[in-house]
Design brief:
The radius of gyration is 17 Å and the shape is globular. The longest helix is centred in the middle third of the chain and has 14 residues. Helix 1 packs antiparallel against helix 9. The chain is an alpha+beta fold. The strands form 3 sheets. The chain has a 6-stranded mixed beta sheet with strand order 3-4-2-1-14-13. A 6-stranded mixed beta sheet has the order 5-6-7-8-12-9. Helices cover 26% and strands 33% of the residues. The chain has a single domain, classed as Endonuclease/exonuclease/phosphatase (Deoxyribonuclease I, Chain A), CATH 3.60.10.10. The chain is built from 9 helices and 14 strands.
Length: 271
């Protein structure tokens, strides 16, 4: 069974026609959003583009004394027959609303879908690596058949050879490195391993990376192409294709690329 899974940081925007038209064209079966505010989630739900939805800010509304950063969360949307159920947050994280998890029913059994947004280190210092570490440790304890959309705010350098990646914090490789503590794999690297011609083309264009452009950090004097956005999957999910739609995503109203993956889920003998 094939599923189109997309992950997108929508940059705390209000839903507009550009967002809707873009999502309609991309046509994901399951969508993981980061940096989403309640109005964006509510308005997208009302469009009926998706059949099911859940938002972390409904599970944990921001407190009256909490600042603007606590008004940004994650959301999951899906189309029939992929039904969202039992959503929950990771209360162990510094910002629980930035990790939304739910079960997704399919014709091949259930899978777990996650949307995770790491707080930026420039603003939150040690809370960023702490979030990486705690989320990676949670992944270790999870069963198979899990797919994750993430804005990781890392790595510092996304090198074609992952062993040459540079990191902002020493904890980041626990989640994103070449030997993470969990079993999930970067879907785009898996796709490039199966398509060496594409990988070679990227190496020629950007010898030191990034493998794809999902975000451009810095200011008008110095801007650095980065790959901060990922889709990760467990080994029992296969990858057919992965695309980073940076230019179209910026035109639609974000500063991050939407990442879209064609995945295939086989029968789950346990379901």
């Amino acid at each position: 069974m094939k599923i189109r899974f997309a992950s997108w940081n929508v940059n705390n925007r209000i839903l507009c026609s550009n967002h809707f038209d873009f999502l309609y064209e991309v046509n994901p079966d399951i969508l993981a959003l980061q940096e989403v505010n309640p109005k964006f989630s509510e308005h997208l739900t009302k469009t009926n583009l998706f059949s099911y939805s859940t938002c972390s800010l409904h599970l944990r509304p921001p407190g009256s004394s909490e600042g603007r950063a606590r008004q940004l969360g994650c959301a999951l949307f899906s189309k029939a027959p992929f039904k969202i159920s039992t959503p929950f947050l990771l209360n162990s994280l510094p910002f629980p609303e930035r990790a939304l998890i739910a079960r997704i029913s399919t014709t091949k059994g259930a899978i777990t879908a996650c949307s995770f947004h790491t707080p930026p280190g420039a603003s939150w210092k040690e809370l960023k690596p702490k979030s990486h570490k705690l989320f990676a440790e949670w992944l270790v304890s999870q069963p198979t058949r899990l797919i994750l959309g993430i804005d990781a705010n890392a790595p510092k350098t996304d090198h074609p050879d992952i062993k040459q990646n540079d990191w902002w914090w020493k904890e980041e490789p626990l989640l994103l490195g070449d030997r993470p503590i969990h079993s999930l794999k970067d879907a785009f690297r898996l796709y490039l391993e199966a398509n060496p011609v594409k990988l070679q083309r990227i190496r020629m264009e950007r010898p030191k990376g990034p493998l794809a452009i999902s975000y451009i950090r810095g200011n008008k004097w110095r801007r650095t192409m980065s790959r901060y956005d990922f889709i990760y999957v467990t080994p029992d999910i296969s990858i057919s294709s992965v695309e980073y739609l940076y230019e179209a995503s910026v035109k639609a109203g974000s500063d991050h690329a939407l990442v879209i993956a064609e995945i295939e889920v086989t029968d789950d003998q346990k379901m």
